[in-house]
Amino acid sequence: MCSKTGKAVKQEQRHKRFQGGVQTALPVTGGEAMEDIRIGIIGHGFMGHEHEKMLTKMDGIRLVGFSDRDPSQLEDVQEGLKRYSSNEELINDPEVQVVLIAANNNQHHDLVIQAARAGKDIICEKPVAMSLEELDDMVRVTQECGVKFTVHHQRRFDPDFRTAKEVLDEGTLGDVYTIKSSLYGFNGNMHDWHVYVAEGGGMLYDWGVHLLDQILWMMPGAKIKSLYADIRNVINFEVDDYFKILMRFDNNITAEVELGTYYLTDKKHDKWFERHWFIGGNKGSAYVDGFEPEGKIVRTAGLLQNVSGHRTMTAAGPTRSFGPPPEGKILTEELPKVNTCHENYFENYIRAYHGEEEFLVKIPETRRVLALMDAVRESGRTGRSIDFE
Predict the structure, then answer these.
(1) CATH number of the 11-153+341-361 domain
(2) What pTM, to 2 d.p., does this model score?
């Protein structure tokens, strides 16, 4: 489990650098503590509340306050934090250095432009924009204004994802041919503005952007040759609540991403209604289940030896590949251990803001994700595969 960063944590514990899933200490520059970054947040919905809980406990950040277009959303803002009467008031507050935008997806473009023109640095929730054209405009203005601009892709630090990535990076599965990432639910319906297309709702914008970003970040040098997508409205009227995306990469790996909000089973032992990963190679496989990951690396004691001219009939049939394996045939190993959590995103942000390292999430990466989502929607609309890169 990843330890939480709090005000009582020693100074040297606040400065961690991540290499794969392993933390290594990073010394404080010049032995002096860095000045707190003063952040104001637009939007006090689900993510606004999550940011509030996290950032009020983190060294290196001072949360200034919140704005929200619905004043009732500010009623439970913690004591000591400002409650702004408008987004403009927050953006123009000289006490705020960084504007964190946690408003509805369709508001991101305009709010980024406003904050940049006020000289504020910006963290924007995902998806960063509703289109490539919007993002390109945001990049142009933030560059013209000379402000820092990045995106909150905190799920690059999910323990399940980092475990799967560590398995892939270690290379012990041999030549990997398939990676599957999946997430299933039972409630079916979404909530609040997520059920409206005009607000940027739907699961592809909500979870899909994370799942696709994880796959791309998992294999940073690989290009997607082609993709196919099936996108459906199973329960919801306006927005997608199921998708399956197949991507063929130029490293000969086929990645599959599947999400369903109404994908039911009564199986409890494998954390069905949570995250799942499967990685298959010619020297074994690995499965990772759950947000707090469980699973194994799996191999066989030996491969079937083909004997010409002889046919062996078993309960599994003549191929002898399917059905219950004989005792001792399947061997398992423990998954690698990782120590990551969402606070690590802001730990990187603090160091990058002070020039000690690069921002983990770079805008060209988020643009590639948006372009991929456009291709996914086109494939889903036409029922055809798409050549991508």
Answers:
(1) 3.40.50.720
(2) 0.87
